[in-house]
Design goal:
By secondary structure, the protein is of the alpha+beta class. 43% of the residues lie in helices and 19% in strands. The structure holds one RNA strand.
Length: 448
Amino acid sequence: MKPSIPKGTRDFTPEQVAKRNYIFETIREVFIKYGYQPIETSAMENLATLTGKYGTEGDKLLFKVLNNGDFLAKADKEALAALDSAKAVKSLAKRGLRYDLTVPFARFVVMHRNDITFPFKRYQIQPVWRADRPQKGRYQEFYQCDVDVVGSNSLMYEAELVLIYDEVFTRLNIPVTIKYNNRKILEGIAEVAGISEQFVEMTTSIDKLDKIGMEGVRTDMENRGISTDAIDKIAGILSIGSIDEMRPLLSSSDAGRKGIEELEEMSQYLGTATAHNTVQFDCTLARGLSYYTGCIFEVTADNVKMGSIGGGGRYDDLTGTFGMKDVSGVGVSFGAERIYDVMQELDLFPKSDKSALKVLLIAYDKDSHHYAFSVTIKLREAGINADLYPTPTKIQKQMKYANARKVPFTIHIGGNEMERGKLTLKDMNTGVQSSLSLEEIINQLGDH
RNA sequence: GUGGGUAUAGCUCAGUUGGUUAGAGCGCUGGAUUGUGGUUCCAGAGGUCGCCGGUUCAACUCCGGUUACUCACCCCA
C-alpha cells in the first residue's frame, strides 16, 4: 500500500524535532523560572467532559474515540435508524481527544483540589486535536503551551504573564507586540451604546477589525442586527487609543469603570519592569467568544504576516461546570507551531545544535574498525556525541555519510594510526587534518 | 459547513491543438578512484500517469463522477 498520514497531521525530521525542542525548552525554562509546575493529562477525556465547553461549532470539531467491543449492540438503535449522527454518537463514543489544555486543566483542578495548594501555578505543553479543515498554519494535531494560575484574583498575575510573554519572545529573538484589553471594557462599551444584550455579536465583530477594517466591522455589525446609532457610538469609542481618554466615556458603566481600574492596577505592577517588546493597550482586542471575563492578551510577531502566536486572559469561573464555584484563573497560551513558522521565516533558529552528532569515526580495515569502536566508547564516556561507521568500507562512502550527517569532525583510523597511537582528526569545514592522541582529541572536542 | 486549486518515478515537477517506446533535476545503486568528502563524468534500477466510467480509430491529455491532498472563508493556535 502507498504510505500516507491523516490530513492535518505531520511527521517531523530529526532537524525539525531539534528546532521544535528548542522552542519548547525555551518556553519551559521561563515557565519554571516564574514558579510554575508541570502537569500532564491524558490525550483522551470522557466525551462528557469536553462537550458543551466550546460552543456548538467546537463540539463538531471534537475527535471522538469509537467504543471498543461490540459497540453496535449497545448503540442507540433509534438514533441509528433515524440517521441522527449527533444523537447516535453519544452511544457510540464515550471518549474524545482533548481539544485544548484549559478544560482538562479545569477538570484536573477540581479532581485534585485536596492535593493542590492555591494559588496553583501550572504549565502544560502537550498536543491537542481538532477536526478542523486544515490550512496554512493550522493542523488537526498541534501543540499548545499553556501557563495558568488558579485560585487568586490578584492582578499581579496578569502583569506576570505579560512579563513571561516578553521574556520568552526575547529569548527566542522574535520581536513581538503584546496587546492587552479587558473584557469589562468591552462590556462597558456595549452598555454605553445601549446594546448589552448584543455583547457577543459586538465582540465577535470587533475581533475582526484588523482583518476587515472599520468599514467592514460596521457592515458586519449591521448584518448582526446592531442599530446604526449604537454602531456610531461603538466606532467612536474604538477610535480612542489610550485608557485615560476612555475613562470619561465609560464612566456611566460599572463594568467599564471596573475594567479600567483593573488595567490600571496591572500597569502599576508592570511599571517597575522593563519590557523588551511593545506592550500596548488595544481596546479593539476582543478574542472571540471564549470564557474570558477580565484582562485579555494577544501576541503578534512584528515583521511577519501571521495570525496571533499567543493569547489568553482572565476567566472568573472556569471550574464552575465541574461543580467548583468561585475559582478565578488567568492564563496564556503559546502557539508553538506558528512560532516555529515565524522563526523559520525570520531565520532565527540557532545554527549549532548541542544534541547533534559531534564526530564520526572512519575505519580503513577490519582491525582498525574494532580499535575504532573502542575509541568511540571512550569518546562517549567523555560526553562527546560520537558514532562509528558500521563497516570499514570505502572511505569515499564513509565520507559521504559524514556529509549527510552534517558532522563537524571525523576521526580516521587505519594501520598508521594504530601503529603510532595517534589518531587523525579532520575538521570537516576547513578540511584541516591533525595527528592527535585520544586525550588531545577529547580536550579539543569537549571545548566546542 | 461553503468555495477554489492540484493529483505523472522515492522527492520536486515537465509532458505540444488527443497520436505509436511518458521525460528532466535531485536522491538512490554501481563504476572512473589501493588512505579522504561536498565538484565532475559514465552506467543502472525505479512509473497499472490517484481511482471508476464516458467520448474517440486512438486518452497522461477531453468530459462526468469519486477519493485524497491543498488553499481561502467560517472559526481558531
